[in-house]
């Protein structure tokens, strides 16, 4: 199948606010927009035949000049109309930045760059489409079931009822599976044409051009401070690459707006179009590269002031959101900083850079703050109780290795007063109530809230039924005092088994729906600044001869409201911190400036941390409950772990060596020329 015989497809409707729901046509034009774009699909009965046949395809191209060099194409840079989904303005300005900055006695004006990075989950993007009459059963690895269905429907121009998504286990996603890609559309087109099941799986090499690319960025940060460390002016201006036909903008400076107090402020986002694959969401889109840079610049300010970096942050703690003027729902950044400093032994930090040497190793400590917005998204779930008193939870929510099954089992068991083994959670099918899936750290808290609400509605139904039922021990009692626990419903010391109430009143079972409202329908999200916070600490050793950097230990202390599951939360946070270390020291997708091809096209060349790179990492979560976020008091934390983690590592490298690298990743050849002279 090529553009010559591929069926007509729908094209993306740019007026749809969120892109994951838009059409995603494949093989729809003879024009190749970037290196690696699919130009043909070969289907065979075995994998080996398909690969061999694909290798026989000869493609002729009429070349045209392209723009692949981010630095060289800066004259093309433009201002976008809106950040993601139009909800966040690209530029903000408070007070008079220039005047404030000029008046500040201590000034930092630095430009940092971050490379192209990729999501690269261990489980490649793959899809098996099985035709069933006129229907297509789509087994696909995707983060949002409803978006996958919508995207297929709008591309194939098919009735939504004909598409059935099945994705009980997703594997990793990290943003790269928020939407479907060519593999799904190609499998669907071919299965429909052949009336046979077709599976398309991307190779690791193909993923580097087709899924999950984080834009490269150039970021200028200016900080103006009084000698006591108080910020007078803060500016964070970001330029990143995009594809000329389709904007993608990471909100890289967005959380800087809420981080520190300063009367004069400026943030902006600009785009430089290149003939490369378009950017996509990659774990903590925006905050990850943004916090890496801002928190490195804050370390530069601390150094210029001769001030402890923890103290500098505490001195700039705002009392209200510094740009929106809103109260914080629950801000414990200072607690995170203090608790982290205490646990890490921050007082042992070398006060002077490059002053501590242990044998071959220069030793340094670094720290950084972390912040991430919490997002509420419309989500529905249904909970059904069978006559035997067991419960089934259904929602098209996904589990991308984050523990959704576990967390929703706990929430439903808690909500109905059942032992967890009497709850079954069913996820990832388009027949189930619609959720926003997993992404943007919105999964667990929002789907848990919907399940909790469904349980609440079920409890009310059951207690009302018992009260009105002369056969019930609870007949006529006040439902307000009802307690559900261990499968027993009790009111004022009188009790009855939950299963008896269900069996008597609802022999076929009973169900209730629960919903989490959109942010715009929840006044708390207009009245409060709702974020999660963290403080990161890192110790590194840098080889005094070779500048090899070895991470020695990392600690993160976080504030996320209430934790739904301590183990899965800790795993998410540690995963994020390790990713932060990788962003500081390793990750770098390199473009061939002649063709726009990524030459680092596997995990041997595109480096991510392996076990040998990662020493002791610990994540601690402060006790908390954010009642403004939702009824459970829980906020999303999946992406918080990465926010600021890399800066703590980078700042530790500076503390160890006195060398500040502003071009990430910090590799040894960038550090080596600045190392202190060897003595013996
Ligand atoms: Mo998120 S960018 O879906 O990990």
Could you walk me through the main structural features you see in this protein, from its secondary elements to its overall organization?
The structure is a single chain. This protein is of the alpha+beta class and 680 residues long. The chain folds into three domains: 19-63 and 119-210, Aldehyde oxidase/xanthine dehydrogenase, molybdopterin binding domain (Aldehyde Oxidoreductase, domain 4, 2-Layer Sandwich), CATH 3.30.365; 217-375 and 525-674, Aldehyde oxidase/xanthine dehydrogenase, molybdopterin binding domain (Aldehyde Oxidoreductase, domain 4), CATH 3.30.365.10; 379-516, 2-Layer Sandwich (Aldehyde Oxidoreductase, domain 4). The chain contains 16 helices and 25 strands. The strands form seven sheets. The chain has a five-stranded mixed β-sheet with strand order 1-11-10-9-2, sandwiched between helices. Strands 12-13-21-22-25 form a five-stranded mixed β-sheet, with helices on both faces. Strands 6-5-4-7 form a four-stranded mixed β-sheet, with helices on one face. The longest helix has 25 residues, at 443-467. The site of dioxothiomolybdenum(VI) ion (MOS) has 11 residues, from loops.
């Amino acid at each position: 199948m090529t553009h010559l015989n591929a069926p007509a497809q729908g094209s993306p409707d740019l007026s749809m606010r969120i892109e994951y729901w838009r059409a995603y046509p494949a093989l729809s034009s003879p024009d190749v927009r970037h290196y690696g774009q699919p130009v043909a699909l070969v289907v065979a009965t075995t994998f080996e035949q398909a690969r061999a046949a694909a290798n026989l395809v000869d493609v002729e191209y009429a070349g045209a000049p392209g723009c692949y060099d981010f630095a060289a194409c800066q004259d093309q840079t433009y201002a976008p109309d809106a950040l993601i989904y139009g909800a966040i303005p690209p530029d903000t300005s408070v007070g008079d930045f220039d005047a404030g900055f000029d008046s500040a006695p201590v000034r930092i004006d630095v430009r940092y760059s971050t490379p192209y990075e990729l999501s690269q989950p261990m489980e490649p993007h793959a899809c098996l489409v099985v035709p069933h009459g006129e229907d297509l059963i789509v087994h696909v690895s995707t983060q949002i079931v409803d978006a996958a269905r919508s995207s297929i429907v709008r591309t194939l121009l098919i009735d939504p009822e004909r598409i059935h998504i099945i994705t009980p286990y997703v594997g990793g996603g990290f943003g790269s599976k928020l939407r479907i890609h060519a593999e799904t559309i190609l499998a669907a087109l071919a299965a429909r044409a052949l009336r046979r099941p077709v599976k398309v799986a991307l190779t690791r090499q193909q993923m580097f051009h087709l899924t999950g690319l984080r834009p490269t960025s150039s970021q200028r940060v200016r900080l103006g401070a009084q000698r006591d460390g108080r910020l007078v002016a803060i500016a964070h201006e970001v330029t990143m690459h995009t594809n000329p036909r389709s904007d993608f903008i990471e909100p890289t400076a967005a959380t800087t707006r809420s981080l520190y107090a300063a009367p004069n402020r400026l943030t902006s986002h600009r785009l430089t179009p290149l003939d490369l694959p378009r950017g996509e969401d990659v774990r903590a889109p925006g905050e990850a590269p943004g916090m890496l840079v801002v928190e490195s610049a804050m370390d530069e300010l601390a150094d210029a002031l001769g001030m402890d970096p923890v103290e500098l942050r505490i001195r700039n703690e705002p009392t209200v959101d510094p740009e929106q003027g809103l109260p914080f729902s629950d801000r414990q950044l200072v607690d995170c900083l203090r608790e982290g400093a205490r646990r890490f032994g921050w007082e042992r930090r070398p006060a002077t850079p490059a002053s501590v040497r242990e044998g071959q190793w220069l030793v340094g400590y670094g720290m950084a703050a972390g912040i991430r917005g919490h997002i509420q998204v419309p989500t529905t779930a249904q909970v059904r109780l069978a006559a035997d008193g067991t419960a089934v939870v259904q929602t098209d929510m996904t589990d991308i290795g984050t523990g959704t099954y576990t967390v929703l089992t706990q929430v439903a068991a808690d909500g109905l007063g059942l032992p967890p083994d009497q709850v079954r959670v069913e996820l990832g099918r388009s027949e189930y109530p619609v959720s926003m899936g997993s992404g943007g750290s919105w999964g667990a808290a929002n789907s848990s809230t919907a399940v909790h609400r469904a349980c609440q509605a079920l409890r009310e139904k059951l207690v009302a039924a018992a009260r009105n039922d002369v056969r019930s021990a609870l007949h006529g009692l006040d439902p307000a005092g009802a307690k559900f626990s261990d499968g027993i419903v009790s009111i004022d010391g009188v009790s009855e088994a939950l299963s008896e109430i269900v069996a008597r009143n609802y022999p076929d079972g009973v169900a209730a729906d629960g919903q989490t409202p959109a942010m715009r329908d929840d006044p708390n999200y207009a009245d409060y600044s709702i974020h999660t916070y963290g403080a990161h600490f890192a110790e590194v050793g840098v080889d005094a001869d070779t500048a090899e950097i070895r991470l020695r230990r990392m600690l993160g202390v976080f504030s996320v409201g209430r934790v739904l599951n301590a183990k899965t939360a800790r795993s998410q946070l540690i995963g994020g911190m390790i990713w932060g270390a990788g962003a500081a020291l390793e990750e770098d997708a390199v473009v061939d400036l002649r063709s726009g091809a990524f030459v680092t096209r596997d995990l041997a060349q595109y480096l991510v941390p392996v076990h040998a790179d990662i020493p002791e990492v610990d994540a601690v979560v402060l006790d908390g409950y954010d009642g403004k976020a939702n009824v459970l008091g829980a906020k999303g934390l999946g992406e918080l772990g990465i926010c600021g983690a890399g800066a703590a590592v980078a700042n530790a490298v500076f503390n160890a060596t006195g060398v500040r690298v502003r071009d990430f990743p910090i590799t040894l050849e960038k550090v080596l020329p600045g190392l202190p002279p060897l003595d013996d």
